[in-house]
Write a structure and sequence with these properties.
The protein is of the alpha/beta class. Helices cover 42% and strands 10% of the residues.
Length: 431
């Protein structure tokens, strides 16, 4: 059995070290090959990414075929539609034992994607039956659960070919913002359990940087504790995402926020970081901008030490544990438990408009920058969650909260002008 993605990251991340990764995808095979090669050559410890296009994500393969025939640009790599020899050529530029590649896609119906990955021997992907359903469209949750059950079982077949498959939950990134950390943690752990119970033994759990560094450190500590208590495998690690909401528009603001994400990852003991670039607020980033972000995050990580343990008996842990326990007690089959949880409102994503989400919860940013529950709906944390003063949820207030981090980092950036990376000056990387 060859070393899998999870084993590689655990070997090279954590304990003050950090593996950094872009969210890179190009429709043109030559550009995708160049992007992988540049990621490997970056002056940082990296792993590669192939992000798929929007048509492949929703199964519109005829639209992909038309785009390829007509020479139209795609916003990601159409791995199902390209001939396997083309994708193997793309991978040959950089993949190997010292540089695993993860495929990212965003699909609630990923069976074709996972069959393709299995044929190619690509052993790392991500998503989840909840996190790649509710925010992204109107696919019924029950259908997504069935699709992901089948996909996990297909992907687990890689083990017969000597490849240990790895799946990363996207549950810690639900809608990117204004969902208090406890529910992000609970969904991330529940999706990891779903993967494991359907044959995938190597997993990573995600957490997206939110609005308060102290709360984020508490959240990652709670996530690690719950994984230690509930996951029936030692092959797991934590991946932190740079902020998923409205990103700063200034270069200094964007880099400062990315630096804070790298500091969070190292300080909390996370093993891997998904970076964002200076172009996030405007367009799809170039290869050079991705490399600059990887190298900046690596330098920020290198000057950061592990922070004192914030303790795990925190408000965030108590809420996350209550949510997770309540869901698991609904049914022995975790897929059915997830469906019942959303029907009962035990899981309920603030501001999510999906038909299977009850929409009775609300989150907001407190005066100190922490994410708080404004309304808990039917979540089973009524006696645990700190009660907040009820206030009308207005469109102006929502927009103000949504732009909180952008305004904060763009304004402060003027006073904190640290040296910026220069695209195109990377050295030879360790990853």
């Amino acid at each position: 059995m060859s070393e899998g993605f999870g084993a590689f990251v655990r070997a090279h991340g954590g304990d003050g070290r950090l593996v950094v990764q872009p969210r890179m995808g190009f429709g043109d095979p030559r550009r995708m090959r160049e992007g992988l090669a540049a990621t490997r050559a970056a002056d940082a410890f990296t792993v590669g990414t192939i992000t798929l296009d929007a048509h492949t994500r929703v199964g519109h393969l005829r639209a992909v075929e038309r785009a390829l025939r007509d020479g139209q640009d795609l916003n990601g790599y159409p791995i199902v539609s390209h001939e396997e020899r083309v994708t193997r050529w793309v991978l040959s530029a950089a993949s190997g034992p010292g540089f695993p590649v993860q495929v990212r896609h965003g699909s609630a119906a990923p069976a074709d994607i996972f069959r393709t990955l299995t044929r190619l021997g690509l052993g790392a992907s991500e998503g989840g039956p909840v996190s790649y359903c509710l925010p992204y469209g109107r696919t019924p949750l029950a259908e997504s659960v069935r699709n992901w059950r089948e996909s996990c079982e297909v992907f687990a077949g890689l083990r017969e070919r000597g490849v240990e498959p790895h799946l990363e939950t996207f549950g810690g990134c639900m809608l990117g913002q204004l969902c208090p950390p406890s529910q992000l943690i609970a969904i991330s752990v529940l999706e990891a359990l779903f993967f494991i119970r359907h044959g995938v033994r190597s997993v990573s759990v995600s957490y997206a940087q939110q609005t308060h560094p102290g709360q984020d450190r508490e959240a990652v500590a709670a996530l690690r504790r719950l994984c230690g208590e509930l996951l029936p495998t030692d092959d797991w690690h934590v991946v932190v995402y740079a902020y998923m909401g409205l990103y700063p528009t200034t270069e200094h603001g964007a880099y400062r926020l990315l630096g804070q994400a790298a500091e969070l990852a190292v300080a909390s003991g996370a093993e891997r970081l998904i970076v964002k670039t200076v172009a996030e607020s405007r367009r799809i980033p170039t290869i050079e901008e991705n490399v600059a972000a990887l190298e900046y995050a690596d330098r920020a990580a290198a000057r950061t030490g592990r922070a004192p343990d914030p303790g795990t008996d925190t408000q965030t842990y108590r809420e996350a544990a209550a949510l997770t326990e309540a869901v698991l007690n609904l049914h022995p089959d975790i897929g059915e438990a997830l469906l019942r949880a959303f029907r009962a409102g035990y899981l309920d994503i603030p501001y999510c408009l999906h038909p299977d989400n009850r929409g009775e919860t609300r989150g907001r940013i407190g005066d100190d920058g922490r994410l708080l529950w404004e309304r808990t709906g039917a979540l089973p944390i009524g006696r645990i969650a700190t009660s907040q003063r009820a206030r009308p949820v207005t469109s102006a207030g929502l927009l103000e909260d949504l732009s909180y981090m952008r305004r904060r980092f763009d304004e402060v950036a003027v006073e904190h002008r640290a040296p910026l990376p220069v695209p195109g000056t990377s050295g030879t990387g360790a990853g």
